[in-house]
Design a protein that fits this description.
Length: 147
């Protein structure tokens, strides 16, 4: 059983309109949620490296592939985090995502935010490396901006 409707993309692929997102899922709960969702017709999963729950999603996928669905029936989306925008980091993070999920490929890989962070400083580094942030900080300290 599938929840049905898909959207045709310019590539010819079809993405399920309804998907299960895993942002802010409670630890130890996302595995069961993903398993139940797939058993009840969900075919699109929306994940991200920064959510830090892809290994749990991978555990659920092991339970349902191939007994409930074939891998080709699922649409798996994940996202490249801001600390991995440098070319040498992109493939490294993708490989880590695939390993966590126990998959050979993703159907869609997005850039999570259009802002790059310096790698190696945790998920949300405190460095003001973005020129816009430096400009705003300057305006705040010189008076025209209060916050």
């Amino acid at each position: 059983m599938s929840l049905g409707k898909t959207l045709a993309l310019s590539s010819g692929a079809h993405i399920p309109q309804l998907g299960l997102g895993t942002w802010q899922a409670e630890p130890k709960e996302v595995e069961l949620a993903v398993e139940i969702a797939i058993r009840n017709g969900y075919r699109h999963l929306d994940l991200a490296f920064v959510y830090q729950n892809q290994a749990e999603v991978g555990a659920a996928l092991k339970k349902v592939i191939p007994s409930v669905v074939q891998r080709e029936e699922l649409w798996i989306t994940s996202k490249l985090w801001n600390t991995a925008h440098q070319p040498q980091e992109v493939e490294k993070e993708l490989n880590e995502t695939l390993e966590q999920l126990g998959l050979d490929y993703l159907d869609l890989y997005l850039i999570h935010w259009p802002v790059a962070f310096r790698p190696g400083d945790g998920m949300f580094p405190a460095h003001l490396t973005n020129p816009s942030l430096i400009g705003i900080s300057t305006l705040m300290s010189s008076g025209p901006l209060m916050m």
